[in-house]
Specification:
homodimer, alpha/beta, five-stranded mixed sheet, 4 helices, globular
C-alpha cells in the first residue's frame, strides 16, 4: 500500500475544510487499494458536533458497502483521531489507522487518551503514525495561527 | 430536575430499539426542563456504526437548536456511554450526563475508559450515575441473554 499517496488524498480533503473555515482535518477510507469514502470536517457548516472527518467518512463507507462493519479497510486521517472518532474506528472494525500528526490536545491514540490503542478493546486496530506528519500538522497549526491573527 | 422521570423517557427509547432487534440503549436530551431530542440505537437497521443513541440524539438536538454546542443541556442515557459517545458528549459541550447502568465492557466514564471524567479535558461534564440502574441494566442484559438463547 502506498500510504503517502492516500495521505495526500486525505490532505486534499483537509484543505477543502480549511476553505470552508472548518478545522482542516481530512480522511479517506481505502479498501482493496481503492478509496471508498472521503470526508473533511463539517461541524459549523452543518451545526453537527459529530461532523468530524472520520465519523463522516465512516458513515459514508458503511452506507456504500451496505454494512456497519468495515472489515479489511484502512482509514487515513491527517491528524490523530479524538476519542469520538477513535471510538467510531473501533465500532466500525476498521483494520488499520494511518495518521499524520499527533494531536496533543485531544488525541485518542496515546497523545492524551488511550481509546484506540487499548489492549482491553474487543477489536485491535493496527496503527501507523507520522505519514506526512509535518504537512498534516502545519496545515492545522497554520489554520489556528491565522484564526488567532484575525481575532487579535 | 426529575431525573427519574426523564430516565423513564430514555427507557421508552431503549425499548423501541429492542423491538427493532437493536441493542436497547435510549437517550433523551433535556433543556430548560423540556425534551429537545430523543433517540435509540439504530446501527444494523441503517448500517451505521455511529448510530448509537447518544450520537443520534446529539445530532438531532444540534439540528433543532441550530448550534453545534448544546450548552446547558442534560443528556439522559440508559447505559454508560462508550468512548465514541463520550467524545461526542464532550464535543457538544453537554452540561450534565445522567446515566443508568454501568457498562463494564466499553464504558467511557470510568468503567473501562476514562474519556468523559478526565480532568485534562477542556470541557468538564457533570456526571450523575445509577438512576434506575437496575431497570436500565436488566433491559440490556435480558436482550443479550435472549440473543444467546436464540443462537444456542
Amino acid at each position: 500500500m502506498d500510504h503517502v499517496y492516500f495521505m495526500k488524498e486525505a490532505l486534499k480533503e483537509a484543505k477543502k475544510a480549511a476553505e470552508k473555515d472548518e478545522v482542516p482535518v481530512g480522511v479517506v477510507i481505502v479498501k482493496d487499494g481503492k478509496i471508498i469514502a472521503r470526508a473533511h470536517n463539517i461541524i459549523i457548516g452543518k451545526k453537527d458536533p459529530c461532523g468530524h472527518a472520520e465519523v463522516l467518512a465512516i458513515r459514508k463507507a458503511a452506507a456504500k458497502t451496505g454494512s456497519e462493519r468495515l472489515y479489511g479497510t484502512i482509514l487515513y486521517a491527517t491528524i490523530e483521531p479524538c476519542p469520538m472518532c477513535g471510538g467510531a474506528i473501533l465500532l466500525s472494525r476498521i483494520k488499520t489507522l494511518v495518521y499524520g500528526a499527533d494531536d496533543l490536545k485531544t488525541g485518542a491514540c496515546g497523545s492524551v487518551h488511550r481509546v484506540i490503542n487499548d489492549k482491553r478493546n474487543n477489536h485491535q486496530v493496527e496503527v501507523i503514525k507520522g505519514v506526512l506528519k509535518d504537512e498534516c500538522g502545519n496545515l492545522l497549526s497554520g489554520f489556528f495561527k491565522e484564526k488567532r491573527r484575525k481575532n487579535a
